[in-house]
Design a protein that fits this description.
11 helices, single chain, mainly alpha
Length: about 240
């Protein structure tokens, strides 16, 4: 699950900005390339804990596993290595899912206030090791807040460009002639396939974590749900992370 999806899940427990920020923090510090080991405390810690619990449930969901596996197989057929294909399929499904969630779940409600809080206070920056890490952190927040994310993930071309830019950072993973075009076609295809499934997956994740599902009226239902996941937790996340 990508960072906006984590904020959507966390907002079902609490809209406290530091908690929401913590729910996105593992993804954000990885994107910024900073050392986040000194950041854990208070509501940030509760949010980080929920992040990991959410990922554990999300990545075991049968629909998520199916779409990522289908994507990897399709991308291997274009000549990508299995390692390349698995990574791109994994991230691609998550980015497209963020775009679909952003259609009905306004980022202004919880997502952007949490990021503005992070940018305008020292809640994260003060815990970073040096000025260079602080510059990287603020550069990332400015980029996210100024680039129209997560709504931009609704556009297959934007998602394709984001995935392709990831491969450029590691020369042996760069895409060859025709592979970028194939990647774009796959992104369009997966966006159409998972559009009716994303809200179902979200509901199943919330149900598994111990919160009441929040499905919006009018969305299509998927055929596989929380009943296909491991048994209900004996320590529901609603008791550990949120308020009723």
């Amino acid at each position: 699950m990508n960072f906006f999806g984590h904020a959507v899940v966390a907002s079902a427990f609490s809209t406290e900005p530091d908690f929401l920020l913590g729910s996105m923090l593992p993804d954000l510090i990885a994107m910024a390339g900073v050392d986040g080991r000194g950041l854990i405390g208070g509501d940030l810690a509760s949010g980080v804990s929920l992040h990991h619990a959410t990922d554990a449930v999300y990545h075991e969901h049968p629909l998520v596993k199916r779409r990522m596996a289908e994507g990897a197989a399709a991308l291997v057929s274009s000549g990508l290595s299995r390692h390349q294909a698995r990574g791109l399929a994994h991230v691609g499904v998550e980015l497209v899912s963020d775009g679909i969630l952003a259609v009905e779940r306004a980022p202004e409600v919880a997502f952007r206030p949490a990021l503005r809080r992070a940018r305008d206070s020292g809640v994260v920056a003060d815990g970073l090791r040096d000025d260079e890490d602080r510059r990287r952190w603020h550069r990332l927040l400015d980029l996210i807040l100024d680039s129209g994310l997560p709504e931009a993930y609704r556009e297959p071309g934007f998602v394709t460009a984001r995935l392709e830019s990831m491969t450029r950072q590691r020369p042996r993973f760069r895409l060859g002639p025709g592979q970028v075009e194939f990647l774009g076609l796959w992104v369009e295809s997966v966006a159409a396939r998972i559009d009716p499934e994303v809200e179902q997956v979200l509901d199943d994740v919330l149900d598994r974590l111990g919160r009441v599902p929040t499905r919006r009226a009018g969305r299509g239902a998927a055929s596989e749900s929380a009943s296909s996941l491991p048994g209900a937790t004996s320590d529901p996340a609603s008791k550990r992370y949120g308020r009723p």
